[in-house]
């Protein structure tokens, strides 16, 4: 009995370890190639770590390429989108959580529909709509499009966080002399900070990664985001792997940082939703 | 401080009615307890006075001013919630001063109001703590403190003690009563616990099924319950009932039980002979006597320390007797009892009391 | 009398309007944005399917009825893309779900270091999809990646070649990348559902004498079933629309062997700038996905009614 329990525990830990290795190995490989000097790249192809490591690819990417521009553009787009979506989704999620109104079911249906249809379908019409407004090839255009795409899911996410906060608290605040909006701002929002963090991080990562619309709406390096920049780089000069992977690692950092900060809250938010549903 | 006037208030949630026309006048400084089983509409009525629920029809006036369409914040009332509803991200002091800060009171005024309330409730050492670092009883006190700093026109309590254990509940009950003695503020208190209602109220409003059953002082409700519901709800252990037919023969009257035996009762005017009626007697009013008129079969003995609750059967009808006679811990298989005439309550077939 | 009555009526009206409009004020900004940036383009996109819209041709724009659909019915590339979509979606969803469920079950038990393990195994989810695609493309590249050499050493492959350029194997490249990238999504969703199962149910079942397998079958699975059903439905729709990895890794090649409908739409719009034809394909895809969703919902309903 004891040994079988011990065996089970060992098997459990080994399985977890296997998952971790599979999850991290590709990222590790990215890191490994990014620090391998060019002359060792082919001779030490399948070695786990180069006999000599270097940061020259990083310094080159940062100093002599358009990547700082891409990085800045992506940061602006992802950051603005995350903030805009979180504000809109907090307001809408609060309405869904706290009010009973006639159009609620229609709004829920609308939000669900936006999650069902292929976004590629919107590529052409959005291009046609944005181009007379001068919003193609512009970061503003991307932010508007990304905000709209991310608001529906973020609204559901925020709603599940609001649902977890007792209604008594606003009622107490309203009796204390607050309007519903003041109660929302001063009492409910501060209590939803984990949810806000989760939403911010989730949307930031999504906007940071978006490829198809960026490819379609952006031409030229000035307004290119990371995905577009890296992809054009790959298709034009698919020789310098070290530099590309260094750029990839740099692109990975903000998304992973955000994710590590918020993943706890994300499971929490989904659990709250699951309990309710 | 203010009077509160409620006139033919009705409330429906969709097509589902929960209050069927409630009238109630609360005098300045009075302590009113709304009591009834869950679902009777007492909390809804309280929330309507607070402005948290819309009024379907009827009027609510505070100090003569109609408040139906005022937001909660404009009614100048304070409320203590069952869950306390303390703001988790604020310290005790900030919780208590939030309403004053919303009204942009001066710093000095806030400090003195919070200080005064904290002193009254013994909260001074806790002022900088967050609610999650407080015990249940302390949280309850903070919720009270939050209500009294404002000196509102009225206090509303929504089952404020039901999350506390029995000992604390007893203690807080006494404190609320003392506080009301000091402040003499108009208070409306909702509870399902009839002990709280009896001990706290100037007047009790007993509610059932969205209808006010009786309004009166605690002892009025205990001594002269207006109907079967109030008779059964007030008092613990609850009143015993015998259903039968009220029969008049000459000067005296009887209740004839379904099995044919009769119990003598005082003759009442205005009750037709032969009509269905219910006889009630409180367990503590049953007299144990060796030469008693009735024989009771003993089913079960429940000692409470303070006294003994005996479950017995009389004429095939189960009833309870409360006694402080320790000898009754080990009674025989049967005992003899008397039901004193002046302690018997008679209710007509529609449940109304007849004197 | 009339004045009193008038006052009584006027005020509630203003208050009624204020009360009724409040939820709309909160949700209006989000709704306006969604309608203008998603719903209007959707309707436009549907109309494009019946028009001749080519970006580089200034004389295009006229209504051409069902011409696009006629062309589509004879487009061999489209039908190949349709078959590829089935294969791509089916394999990805099944493998993601299978490995995701195992991971969720592994993480459901408390153990030392669970927080860290959870953060690490969920990390692929945070990797931007284009980067995940590039990353796996590089891993499959014999010049730079170890995978071809390992597979050769294990005897799975005859020579250390890039599977992405082998027409028979190429689809496995994006599928593997997709599975790696998508396991965390299933695991997170299922883990959240697992943690919502009341623990005392398991205790009661143990006391009643149920073994681990019986507990899984009689408690875990029934509780997870609704989550599994809805997640698989949403994920199937999502993955069949998900072209990023394919665009990045193979761009539909070699010889259109990895072209799925979504990437085909993108190629038509992006490379040939034929928006009308792209929208017609998108409309067909939308109808197919709607039909699929309806089928699942109806199936679920009949199953529920039976049970």
Automatic annotation (TrEMBL), chain A:
Every ABC transmembrane type-1 domain range: 71-262
Principal location listed in the UniProt entry: membrane
Membrane topology: Multi-pass membrane protein
Transmembrane segments: 12-31, 75-94, 106-127, 139-162, 183-205, 211-234, 246-267
Keyword Transmembrane: yes
UniProt keyword list: Cell membrane, Membrane, Transmembrane, Transmembrane helix, Transport
Domain of life: Bacteria
Location in or out of the cell: Cell membrane
Record-stated family: Belongs to the binding-protein-dependent transport system permease family.
UniProt-recorded name of the protein: Carbohydrate ABC transporter permease
TrEMBL record, chain B:
InterPro entries according to UniProt: AAA+_ATPase, ABC_transporter-like_ATP-bd, ABC_transporter-like_CS, ABC_transpr_MalK-like, ABC_transpr_MalK/UgpC-like, Mo/tungstate-bd_C_term_dom, NA-bd_OB-fold, OB_MalK-like
Keyword ATP-binding: yes
Membrane topology qualifier: Peripheral membrane protein
UniProt KW keywords: ATP-binding, Nucleotide-binding, Transport
Superkingdom of the organism of origin: Bacteria
Domain ABC transporter: residue ranges: 4-234
Main location: membrane
GO MF annotation list: ATP binding
Localization: Cell inner membrane
SMART domains per UniProt: AAA (SM00382)
CDD domains: ABC_MalK_N (cd03301)
Entry's family note: Belongs to the ABC transporter superfamily.
PANTHER family per the UniProt record, alphabetical: MALTODEXTRIN IMPORT ATP-BINDING PROTEIN MSMX, OSMOPROTECTIVE COMPOUNDS UPTAKE ATP-BINDING PROTEIN GGTA
The protein's name in its UniProt record: Sn-glycerol-3-phosphate ABC transporter ATP-binding protein UgpC
Originating organism: Shinella curvata
Organism phylogeny: Bacteria, Pseudomonadati, Pseudomonadota, Alphaproteobacteria, Hyphomicrobiales
Gene assigned in the entry: ugpC
Automatic annotation (TrEMBL), chain C:
InterPro entries recorded: MetI-like, MetI-like_sf
Keyword entries, A-Z: Cell membrane, Membrane, Transmembrane, Transmembrane helix, Transport
Top-level division of the source organism's lineage: Bacteria
Membrane topology of the entry: Multi-pass membrane protein
A Pfam family it matches: BPD_transp_1
Annotated SUPFAM superfamilies: MetI-like
Entry annotated with the keyword Protein biosynthesis: no
ABC transmembrane type-1 domain sequence ranges: 82-296
Main location per the UniProt record: membrane
Transmembrane spans: 24-50, 86-107, 119-140, 179-197, 217-239, 275-299
Subcellular location: Cell membrane
Keyword Ligase: no
PANTHER family reported in the protein's UniProt record: BLR7065 PROTEIN (PTHR43005), SPERMIDINE_PUTRESCINE TRANSPORT SYSTEM PERMEASE PROTEIN (PTHR43005:SF1)
Sequence similarity: Belongs to the binding-protein-dependent transport system permease family.
Name under which the protein is recorded: Sugar ABC transporter permease
Source species: Shinella curvata
């Amino acid at each position: 009995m004891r040994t079988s329990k011990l065996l089970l525990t060992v098997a459990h830990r080994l399985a977890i370890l296997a998952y971790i290795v599979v999850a991290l190995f590709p990222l590790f490989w990215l890191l490994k190639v990014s620090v391998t000097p060019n002359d060792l790249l082919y001779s030490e192809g399948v070695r786990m770590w180069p006999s000599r490591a270097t940061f020259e690819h990083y310094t080159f990417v940062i100093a002599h390429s358009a990547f700082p521009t891409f990085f800045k553009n992506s940061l602006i787009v992802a950051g603005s989108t995350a903030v805009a979506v979180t504000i809109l989704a907090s307001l809408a999620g609060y309405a869904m959580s706290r009010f009973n109104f006639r159009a609620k079911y229609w709004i829920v249906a609308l939000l669900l529909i936006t999650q069902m249809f292929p976004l590629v379908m919107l590529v052409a019409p959005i291009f046609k709509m944005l181009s007379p407004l001068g919003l193609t090839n512009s970061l503003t255009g991307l932010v508007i499009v990304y905000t709209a795409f991310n608001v529906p899911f973020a609204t559901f996410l925020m709603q599940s966080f609001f649902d977890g906060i007792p209604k008594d608290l606003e009622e107490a605040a309203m009796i204390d002399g607050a309007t519903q909006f003041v109660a929302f701002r001063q009492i409910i929002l501060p209590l939803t900070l984990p949810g806000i963090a989760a939403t911010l991080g989730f949307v930031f990562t999504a906007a940071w990664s978006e490829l198809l619309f960026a490819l379609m709406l952006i031409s030229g390096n000035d307004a290119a985001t990371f995905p577009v920049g890296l992809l054009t780089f790959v298709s034009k000069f698919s020789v310098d792997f070290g530099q590309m992977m260094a750029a990839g690692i740099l692109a990975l950092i903000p998304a992973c940082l955000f994710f590590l900060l918020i993943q706890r809250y994300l499971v929490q938010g989904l659990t709250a939703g699951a309990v309710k549903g | 401080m203010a009077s509160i006037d409620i006139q033919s208030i009705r409330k429906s949630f969709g097509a589902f009615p929960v209050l069927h026309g409630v009238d109630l006048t609360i005098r300045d400084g009075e302590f009113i307890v709304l009591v009834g089983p869950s679902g009777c509409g007492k909390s809804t009525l309280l929330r309507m006075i607070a402005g948290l629920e819309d009024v379907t029809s009827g009027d609510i006036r505070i100090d003569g001013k109609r408040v139906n369409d005022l937001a909660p914040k404009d009614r100048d009332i304070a409320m203590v919630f069952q869950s306390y509803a303390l703001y988790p991200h604020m310290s005790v002091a900030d919780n208590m001063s939030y309403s004053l800060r919303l009204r942009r009171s001066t710093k000095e005024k806030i400090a003195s109001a919070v200080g005064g309330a904290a002193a009254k409730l013994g909260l001074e050492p806790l002022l900088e703590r967050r609610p999650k670092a407080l015990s249940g009883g302390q949280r309850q006190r903070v919720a009270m403190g939050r209500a009294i700093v404002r000196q509102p026109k009225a206090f509303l309590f929504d089952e404020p003690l039901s999350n506390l254990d029995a000992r604390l509940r007893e203690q807080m009950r006494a404190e609320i009563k003392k506080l009301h003695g000091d402040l003499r503020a108009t208070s409306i208190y909702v509870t399902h616990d009839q002990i709280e209602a009896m001990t706290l109220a100037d007047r009790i409003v007993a509610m059932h099924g969205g209808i006010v059953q009786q309004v009166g002082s605690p002892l009025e409700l205990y001594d002269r319950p207006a109907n079967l519901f109030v008779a059964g709800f007030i008092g613990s252990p609850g009143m015993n009932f015998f259903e039968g037919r009220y029969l008049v023969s000459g000067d005296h009257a009887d209740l004839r039980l379904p099995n044919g035996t009769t119990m003598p009762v005082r003759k009442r005017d205005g009750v037709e002979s032969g009509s269905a009626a219910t006889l009630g007697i409180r367990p503590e009013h049953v007299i144990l006597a060796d030469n008693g008129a009735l024989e009771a079969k003993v089913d079960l003995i429940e000692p409470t320390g303070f006294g003994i609750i005996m479950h017995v059967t009389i004429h095939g009808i189960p009833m309870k007797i409360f006694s402080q006679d320790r000898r009754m811990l080990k009674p025989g298989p049967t005992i003899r009892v008397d039901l004193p005439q002046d302690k018997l309550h008679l209710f007509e077939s529609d449940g109304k009391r007849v004197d | 009398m009339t004045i009193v009555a008038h006052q009584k009526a006027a005020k509630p009206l203003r208050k009624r309007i204020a009360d009724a409009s409040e939820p709309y004020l909160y949700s209006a900004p989000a709704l306006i944005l969604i309608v203008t940036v998603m719903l209007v383009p959707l309707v436009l996109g549907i109309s494009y399917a019946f028009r001749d819209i080519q970006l580089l041709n200034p004389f295009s724009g006229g209504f051409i009825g069902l011409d696009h659909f006629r062309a589509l019915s004879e487009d061999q590339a489209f039908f190949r893309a349709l078959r590829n979509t089935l294969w791509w979606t089916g394999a990805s969803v099944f493998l993601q779900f299978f490995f995701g469920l195992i991971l969720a079950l592994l993480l459901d038990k408390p153990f030392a270091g669970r927080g860290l393990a959870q953060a690490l195994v969920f990390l692929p989810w945070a990797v931007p999809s284009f980067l995940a695609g590039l990353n796996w493309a590089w891993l499959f590249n014999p010049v730079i990646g170890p995978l071809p050499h390992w597979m050769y050493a294990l005897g799975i492959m005859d020579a250390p070649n890039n599977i992405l350029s082998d027409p028979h194997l190429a689809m496995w490249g994006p599928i593997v990348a997709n599975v790696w990238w998508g396991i965390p999504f299933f695991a997170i969703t299922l883990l959240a559902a697992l943690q919502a199962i009341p623990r005392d149910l398991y205790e009661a079942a143990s006391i009643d004498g149920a073994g681990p397998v019986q507990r899984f079958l009689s408690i875990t699975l029934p509780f997870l079933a609704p989550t599994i059903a809805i997640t698989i439905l949403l994920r199937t729709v999502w993955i069949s629309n998900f072209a990023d990895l394919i665009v990045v890794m193979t761009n539909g090649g070699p010889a259109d062997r990895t072209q799925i409908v979504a990437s085909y739409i993108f190629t038509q719009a992006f490379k040939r700038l034929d928006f009308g034809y792209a929208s017609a394909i998108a409309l067909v895809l939308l109808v197919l996905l709607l039909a699929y969703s309806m089928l699942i919902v109806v199936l679920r309903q009949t199953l529920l009614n039976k049970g």
